Task: structure prediction
Amino acid sequence: MDPERSLFRKDIVGWSLYDFANTIYAMNITSLYLKRYIVEDLGKDDRYFDIPYSISMLLAALFLPALGAMSDQSTKKKLFLFLFTLTCCSAVGFMSFIPPGLLAVTIVLFIAANFAYEAGQPFYNALLYSVAEGRQARFVSGIGVALGYVGAILGIVLVLPFVTGSIFSLDVPFLEGGDKVAAYLPTAVLFMLFALPLFVWVKEAPVTTRGPANWRAAYRDVWEGIRMTKRYPGVLRYLIADYFFEDAVATVIINMSIFLSVVVSLAEQEIQTFLLITPIAAVIGSFLIGKIAQYWSLKRLVNLIVTGWVLTLLLFVFAQSMTLIWVLGCVVGVLLGGLWTTTRPLLAEMVPRAELGRFFGLFALSGRAAAVIGPLVWTVVVYFFNPSRPLGRAAVEFFGIRDMDQARLPYRLGVMSLALMMLVGLYLFRKVPVPAERNDG
Result:
C-alpha cells in the first residue's frame, strides 16, 4: 500500500484529529485561561491552580502503568478513550456554570478533567496501530504531532471571540465576550467535536493476546525497567537529567500566560498572539533541529538546546524591551520543539531496539512525574516571595524594589527557579556518554 495515497483514509484522519482536539483543551485550560482566572479574577494565590494540577498529574503517573496494561490487553480501547474524553469535556463544560464563590468545586472538576485527559493518552497512542503499522505508523504519528501544534493555534483563535467578543480587534457579530470563564464551554465542545471522527472512523484492531490486564505485572515491569538501566551506561543518569528538563518545561507551559500578564503587562489579545507565535516557532524548530540532528551529535544538540533554555529564561527575568520579549517568545518555541525532537531519539540510541517499549514507558512516566514537582516548586517560590509575606518583604527591602515592581518579584524568582532546574539537569547530563553506533535491528 502506498503510504502517500493512503494518508487521507478516514481512519488515519480520525486518529490524527484527536491530537488536534486534545491540544485545544491543553492550550486553553491548562496554559491560558484557568490559572489566570483564579489568580487575576478571583485574587487567589498560584497554589490554587498549581497544587490541583500536580495532584492530577500525580494520579496520572500512579495509574499510567495500569492503564498501559489495560491498553495492551483490551479490545475496547475506543470505549476507554471515549469515556475519559467525555469525562474531561464534561468536567470542563460544567466549570462554566460554577459561581466564583465555589472555587473548590471548580478545582475538583479541573483535577477530574486533567486526570481524564492524561489517562486517555495510553489508549489513544495504542490506537495508532489500528490505523497504520511499520514505517507508515511513524509517519502517521508525525501527522498527529503536527496537528497538535495546529490545534494549539486554532484552539486559541476559535475560543477567543467567546472571551473578548472580538478576534484580533475585529468585533464578532451577535457575540459578547464573557472573559476567561467563557472559554471553558467552547473548549469542551470543540474538544469533543474534533475527537468524534476517531470514535466513528477508527476500527480497532484485535489484540494478539486477550485476557485480564495484569496490573501487578505492569508495576513490576516499571521497577524492572529501572533496574535494567544498570545494563546500559548512562541511561539512568540521562532519565534523571531529562526529568529536570521536563520539570522546567512543563512549568513554563502552564505559567507562561500568567507571567506575560503580571510581569510583562501584556493585554489579553497580546497574550493570545504571543501564545500563537510560540507553537508556530515550535513547528519550525522541530523541523530545523530535526534536520541538524541528522549531521550533529544528539548529545551536543541537547546540550546546546538546554543551555539556550537557561539563557532564555534568565533573559525573561531581566528583559525590559518589548521587542526582546517577543523575540524570546519565538526562541522558546524553537527550543521547545527542539528539545522534544532530540531527547527521544537520544534515548533510543542508548538502549537496544528490543527494549525501546520498556524504556519509552519509563520516559513517559518520568514526564508525568516531572509535571508534579515543577509546578509545586513554582508555587512555593511565588507564595513565599509574595511581598506581603516575610521572605518577600525581606527581598523587597534588600534589593530596594519599587512599589510597581513588587508584585512582579515572585514571578521573576519563579522563572529563575526553572532556570536552576535546567542547570541541575545540564550538570547531570554532561556525564551521559555519547551513544556508540549500534546495529541491533
